[in-house]
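Quarterly update, task 2.4: phenylalanine-bound model.
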Amino acid sequence: MLEELKQIEAEALAAVANAADAEQLTEIKVAYLGKKGKITAVSRQMGQVSPEERPALGAAVNQAKGAVETAISSRMAEFRSAQMAAALAEETIDISLPGTSLPRGSRHILSVVQEQMEDIFIGLGYSIAEGPQVEYDYYNFEALNLPPEHPARDMQDSFYFSEKMLLRTHTSPVQVRTMERMAGQLPVKVISPGVVYRRDDDATHSPMFHQVEGLLIDKHVTFADLSGTLLEFARQMFGEDREIRLRPSYFPFTEPSAEVDISCFACGGKGCRLCKGSGWIEILGSGEVHPKVLAMSGYDPEQCSGFAFGMGIERVAMLKYGITDMRLLFDNDIRFLHSF
Ligand code: PHE
């Protein structure tokens, strides 16, 4: 009987080793260890052996059961992990991996500053006017009291297409276009942001840059209105402690004209590197609209008056964000663009 048991065990272990899958293993388990299994059958014959032989046979049966069980469960584990590996190999989405994030864009600092400026003036009741970048000499110069041969044309060295057409050198032509469009109606109250071009190129000048023009025409508009408006702008843009200072200047299209400085927001007016020790920083040109300019565009200087101003968006952005080289604004270096 011991001999027979040895054979059954060997047969069982061979079957386990040859099993092709988990199902076959289960069948083998039933065939040897189940109620009617071959090893179980041997243990049922215990009664037929002599009492002396029983312990040895009992031990042999338990040993055989154990050996077969261990073989089956280790084979089963092999099948399970192979199954898992196959399933994982087929799996193309690993939901435990973090997703690939799309790089997030940001707005250009000039757009941000332009919008801040627009918001301030919209809050003061201005609307936005636009004009072309390729402009007639008439709007860029003549209608602004800069006839041909006027020496002040040299202040703005220009890119010409022909004698009559050029890239606008400032946003002031939009003053003229707006007056024409409004056809004598009052009030005229617009700002005009946009691109302008000049033959300049260094750390603080670019051949292409941006300005915001302002124009207000109504009855009894005075220099005090100009000054109050610009003070309000300076405080909203650069902080509520700002003061402004108007210095006499010259533009052919304004009379009188003023260069406007703001008290330095870095040192509060004491004098520092940013304001070059003076306590003041120049930000724009302005003045009362010249009577000739009003008259040329259909407004009677006896009936109304106005003020205008023009400032560089790059300059405001550079001051506000401490940018020392204007060219950085146009280099498109993503590290710079993302730093605001
Ligand atoms: N257009 C002038 C410039 O570009 C600025 C300005 C605008 C001055 C309006 C007075 C009034 O230099």
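Highlight for this quarter: The pocket of phenylalanine is lined by residues 170, 172, 213, 251, 254, 285-287, 308-310 (CB under 6 Å).
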